[in-house]
Write a structure and sequence with these properties.
Layout: H1 6-12, H2 15-33, E1 44-47, E2 55-57, E3 73-75, H3 95-103, E4 109-113, H4 116-122, H5 133-139, E5 142-145, H6 156-164, E6 169-172, E7 176-181, H7 184-206, H8 216-220, H9 222-230, H10 239-249
Parallel strand pairs: 5-6
Antiparallel strand pairs: 1-2, 1-4, 2-3, 4-7, 6-7
Helix pairs in contact: 3-6, 4-7, 5-7
C-alpha cells in the first residue's frame, strides 16, 4: 500500500491504530524532551492491535523530536514494511524489540534507551541498588541481560527472552535500559522511573559516602504501594498531563 501524506495514512488505518500512532509519536517526542535520545539511534516499538503481528517503529534517520504519527513505519515481525513509506527502517535495531514482542503478549510497547546514567549503572557489577524510593519500583520487576556486542544476531534472541522472563524492566549490561508496557503510557512511565533510579544512584555514589539501603521487606511490598500511588492506573494516570505538556510545546507530533 502506498501513502505519502498524514491524511492518506490516517485513511488507511483503523481509528485504534491512528490513536496508537499519536501516542507513540508523543512518546518519541517526550523521550527527546527529557534528554533520553541518542541522536537517531535506539527505538520505541508498539504492537498494532489485531492478529497480523504488525508493529510501529521510528523512521530511521529522523531525530526523535521530528517523529509524527504518520511518519511512523508499520512493519511485520521481520521488519518488512507493511505500508509503503519514504523513510528507511533499521532491521538490526528491531532485533531486541521483536524478541520481546514475540514472547510477551502483554507488551504493546517496548522502549529502549542509551542514556549516560542508564549505561553507567548497567556497567556496575551490582546493577540497581536499593537506595531510593524509585529503585524499589524498578527492583520489584527487574531482569538483566549480559552484553553480547551490538544486538544484530538472531541467535541472541532466545537468551534475551530467557533472561527477561516476566520482568517489565530489563537492564542490558554495558548497553542501556529497556521497559515493557501494556500501553505506550505504561512503558514511558516505567522508563521515567528507571532513568531516575539510575541518575539518583550515580549522584549518590558520586558523593563518596556510605549509602543507606532500603530494607528488603519494603522492596518486597512495593507492588501494593505502586497501586496505591497511581490508583491502579499505571501510566494512564500521568499520560494526559504529559500530552497537554507536549501540545503546549508543539502539537505537530499528531500529524
Amino acid at each position: 500500500m502506498n501513502a505519502t501524506t498524514p491524511s492518506e495514512i490516517q485513511q488507511l488505518v483503523s481509528a485504534e491504530e491512528w490513536q496508537l500512532r499519536v501516542d507513540l509519536a508523543a512518546c518519541y517526542r517526550l523521550v527527546a524532551l527529557y534528554g533520553w535520545s541518542d541522536l537517531v539511534f535506539t527505538h520505541i516499538s508498539a504492537r498494532v492491535p489485531g492478529p497480523e503481528h504488525h508493529f510501529l517503529i521510528n523512521p530511521y534517520g529522523l531525530m526523535f523530536d521530528e517523529i509524527t504519527a504518520s511518519s511512523l513505519v508499520k512493519v511485520d515481525q521481520q521488519c518488512n514494511k507493511v505500508i509503503e513509506s519514504p523513510y528507511p527502517v533499521n532491521p538490526a535495531g528491531f532485533v531486541i524489540h521483536s524478541a520481546v514482542h514475540a514472547v510477551r503478549e502483554d507488551a504493546q510497547c517496548v522502549l529502549h534507551t542509551h542514556t549516560r546514567a542508564g549505561i553507567a549503572v548497567s556497567a556496575q557489577k551490582n546493577g540497581v541498588l536499593p537506595i531510593s524510593q524509585q529503585s524499589t519500583f524498578v527492583l520489584a520487576s527487574l531482569a538483566y541481560h549480559g552484553y553480547e556486542g551490538v544486538a544484530i544476531r538472531d541467535d541472541e534472541k532466545a537468551r534475551l527472552q530467557a533472561n527477561l522472563g516476566e520482568a517489565n524492566f530489563l537492564m542490558l549490561r554495558n548497553h542501556g535500559l529497556l521497559t515493557i508496557g501494556k500501553s505506550v503510557a505504561d512503558a514511558f512511565l516505567s522508563m521515567y522511573t528507571f532513568e531516575n533510579t539510575c541518575q539518583i544512584q550515580i549522584a549518590a555514589q558520586s558523593g563518596g559516602g556510605e549509602l543507606t539501603q532500603v530494607d528488603p521487606r519494603i522492596v518486597e511490598g512495593v507492588g501494593h504501594a505502586m497501586k496505591v500511588q497511581t490508583g491502579g492506573l499505571g501510566g494512564a494516570f500521568v499520560w494526559p498531563s504529559l500530552i497537554r505538556k507536549l501540545d503546549r510545546i508543539d502539537p505537530g507530533y499528531r500529524n
